[in-house]
Specification:
The complex is a heterodimer of chains A (about 550) and B (about 190). With about 550 residues, chain A is of the alpha/beta class. Chain A is built from 13 helices and 19 strands. The longest helix of chain A is centred in the C-terminal third of the chain and has 21 residues. Helices cover about 45% and strands about 0% of the residues of chain B. The termini of chain B are far apart. Chain B has one domain. In chain B, helix 1 crosses helix 4 and helix 2 crosses helix 6. The chains are: A alpha/beta (about 550), B mainly alpha (about 190). Chains A and B meet through helix 2, helix 10 and helix 11 of A and helix 3, helix 5, helix 6, helix 7 and helix 8 of B.
């Protein structure tokens, strides 16, 4: 049997494509290498209830996958490190039905118009391959609006003075603001910043048959036990309800088959280890910005730039301990953000000049705490003082923090390729990540870190520390591995086959029926989380397939 | 009776856990009374029961409403079992577990680590126990990470007996399906 499209990956990109194509009458097969904990196995148009408020299950035991023993990745900061300096988990997003949408805490901002034309607006950067996207904000705005409705996004129109123009309101009003965020927002405003309720894919009201969020606090890194979170469940459930989608789980796509300049199907390795072939008129690759280039490389669909320009967001993390409880264990993990450090000001321009760079861009700053006890305990020393420190709880009860998702520029040396020696349990070469921040990322972080600390001090912090992910110390330390989970850019989009891998519709230049529908196609990273933009791009790519 | 450890090993483990996370001024139990050794022994012996005690089911424990679903555990797929048997038992020279080389499992690390702490560990003074633990930093790091999970994780995994670990730190634990009201979030 030949389906109209094979969709590889069931995260926000693949789910969006499945929804659009099945609504148009296409038949699709959604191939997911992980398990299904999202949809009821007896009726895939309905939710399952495997998720829970269980820190052991989700943070210690790889429930959402991938298990690094079975599917390791390798890492090095640059070629001088040798084949690799680390084997194991490297900035993984879940390998499960729903993909990265299942563990995300649901902040889903749009990019700004200037994010699509960074080279034109700001100009080049030394060592980086800054470029304009081949499409603009206006091209994507209708798709942003569509996926906001599909996912279910809560927000407050007009609250962010830097926001991109919208064609309509948010589907839902913002949810309850966290206590700590109310205080940190007030402190930020007193210092001249402009915090606002984060556009969040967590229901503030009953939406699309799913309940309102009940603020349990187990949001980031957890699946939502009540399906109030806007993971891809809505799109997947609708696709399955159409009767035109097949969901194939625990199945790895090992190769895209091609004849001439067209794909004909894929090779699959099933849960029993047996290999089979599935034929299709189109192949949509939506496996994320690390697994997507890995599959294209395994398939021999090479291009000189395939895998290059990996961007992850350079996170500046500023944490302070307050003389009062911040109640970070209650609510949607992050309810407020500010964009001032994307826009910049005269001080930013001065800092750029002092760093010898033409410009600096930070990122969206998330206001958050840390409410999990095992996480806290592992940061507290063992011994006599442990019980008192845990009860006093400088982290879980009283910490407040900012995480800036700093714009990460595209450098050709930051890349994904195939590791020469390490294999997964199925016997295939794993992805090797070569990554280190450039001068821009380090300078932007050094500039904005103290400014974020000043906000925490205004909020009342007794102490505050500045760190980053990745860390900037020993290259062989695990801290050198980024942990943002925001992987982008490895299958760059553009009009020129010499400088890009896919065209503006997401099609591989050399193979017109192979479409990439995830954050791999990003040209630049912006300072915003990638989920809504990748879903909007996926919706657009699917529309252009019809 | 321990699920996997010998009685002697279990006694050494109990003493070591209690030193890492001691009781607090008679107001909160230490790791031993909270069941942390059972959490660790349960992990090492996860495959002595079916399904293995790796992932508790959801969505609720029953502590704040809903059904006590945490008491049941997920079935593992073949790949899940390969991962967790390799992690716990080690690769044991089996080709299907050694696709990237030999793996030393938790069972071997615990057996060797507890032996290194010594059969007399429980009879040492607190200072001597600390010195012994510091003499074996890799094992102590492993043990402490698991002790934290057993002290402050869901009780269904064998530790945090009766929620004692959570009570000691004023943590509500898994709050579904009750959650928190908007007022409790914004104006606690």
């Amino acid at each position: 049997m030949t389906v109209d499209a094979i969709i590889i990956g069931s995260g926000p990109g693949g789910a969006t494509v499945a929804d659009v194509l099945t609504a148009a009458g296409w038949t699709v097969a959604i191939i997911e290498k992980g398990r299904n904990h999202l949809l009821d196995p007896h009726d895939l148009s309905r939710p399952s209830f495997d998720y829970s408020n269980d820190e052991i299950k989700f943070l210690s035991r790889h429930f959402l996958g991938p298990d690094p023993l079975i599917e390791p990745r390798t890492f090095r900061t640059h070629e001088g490190d040798g084949d690799h300096s680390h084997v194991g988990e490297v900035n993984s997003v879940p390998s499960t039905v729903g993909g990265g949408g299942t563990h995300a805490d649901g902040k889903v901002p749009r990019l700004m118009p200037d994010d699509f034309r960074l080279l034109s607006v700001l100009g080049p950067q030394p060592d980086a391959e800054v470029a304009d996207w081949p499409i603009g904000y206006d091209d994507l705005e209708p798709y942003y609006a569509r996926v906001e409705r599909a996912i279910g996004v809560a927000g407050t129109e007009g609250a962010n003075p830097f926001a991109a123009p919208r064609s309509g309101p948010f589907p839902m009003p913002s949810g309850a603001p966290m206590f700590g965020a109310i205080l940190s927002s007030a402190a930020a405003e007193r210092l001249g910043y402009h915090p606002y309720p984060a556009p969040t894919a967590a229901n503030s009201v009953v939406y699309d048959g799913r309940p309102a969020c009940n603020n349990c606090g187990f949001c980031a890194y957890f699946g939502c036990p009540i399906h109030a979170k806007g993971d891809p469940i809505a799109m997947l459930a609708r696709a399955m309800a159409s009767g035109r989608a097949e969901l194939v789980t625990e199945t790895f796509v090992s190769r895209i088959r091609t004849e001439g300049n067209r794909a004909t199907g894929v090779d699959l390795v099933g849960p029993d280890g047996a290999t089979r072939t599935m034929a299709a008129d189109h192949v949509v690759v939506a496996a994320g910005a690390i697994e997507t280039p890995r599959l294209l490389l395994l398939s021999g669909l090479d291009h000189p730039l395939l895998g290059r320009f990996l961007m992850t967001h350079f996170q500046t993390i500023v944490a302070g301990s307050m003389p009062f409880r911040t109640y970070a264990e209650r609510g949607r993990a992050v309810t407020h953000v500010h964009d001032d450090m994307i826009v910049g000001d005269d001080d930013t321009r001065k800092a750029a000049a002092e760093a010898g760079l033409p410009w600096l861009r930070g990122g969206m700053v998330e206001h958050s705490g840390a409410g999990l006890p095992i996480m806290e305990a592992k940061h507290v020393p063992w011994g006599t003082n442990h019980p008192r420190l845990m009860a006093d709880s400088a982290i879980r009860k009283r910490l407040w923090a900012f995480i800036m998702q700093g714009e990460d520029l595209p450098y050709a040396g930051n890349r994904v390729d195939l590791d020469p020696t390490v294999r997964d349990a199925r016997g295939f070469p794993v992805a090797r990540i070569t990554y280190r921040p450039g001068r821009h990322e380090l300078a932007a972080s050094a500039h904005y870190g103290p400014r974020l600390r000043a906000i925490l001090e205004e909020m009342g912090s007794q102490w505050a520390v500045i760190s980053s992910s990745p860390g900037t110390g020993n290259a062989s330390s695990p801290a050198a591995i980024p942990e943002s989970r925001h992987n982008m850019g490895t299958v760059r989009m553009g009009t020129d086959p010499a400088t890009s891998v896919v065209d503006p519709a997401g099609r591989l230049h050399q193979f017109e029926n192979v479409i990439v529908a995830d954050s791999s196609v990003f040209v630049t990273s912006s300072g915003y989380g990638p989920t809504l933009t990748l879903a909007a791009l996926a919706a657009r790519a699917a529309d252009l397939m019809l | 009776m321990p699920a996997w450890l010998t009685d002697d090993e279990y006694r050494t483990l109990t003493a070591a856990c209690e030193r890492l996370i001691p009781p607090r001024d008679g107001t909160a139990p230490g790791a031993a009374a909270a069941g942390v050794p059972d959490y660790i022994d349960g992990l090492l012996g996860a495959f002595t029961v079916d399904p293995p005690r790796i992932w508790a089911r959801g969505p609720t424990s029953g502590r704040h409403g809903g059904s006590p679903a945490f008491a049941q555990f997920h079935e593992l797929t073949a790949l899940d079992e390969l991962a967790w048997r390799t992690r716990i038992e080690g690769s044991c020279g089996l080709p299907e577990r050694e696709f990237n080389g030999p793996v030393i499992g938790l069972q071997e690390r615990y057996r060797d680590g507890l032996a290194a702490l010594g059969p007399d560990f429980g009879r040492l003074s607190g200072r001597e126990q600390d010195d012994r633990l510091r003499d074996h930093p890799d094992f102590t790091d492993l043990l402490y990470g698991h002790a934290c999970e057993g002290m402050y994780g869901a009780p269904e995994y064998g530790g945090n007996r009766g929620g004692a670990g959570w009570r000691a730190i004023d943590f509500e634990g898994d709050v579904q399906p009750r959650g928190w009201t908007d007022a409790e979030v914004s104006n606690p």
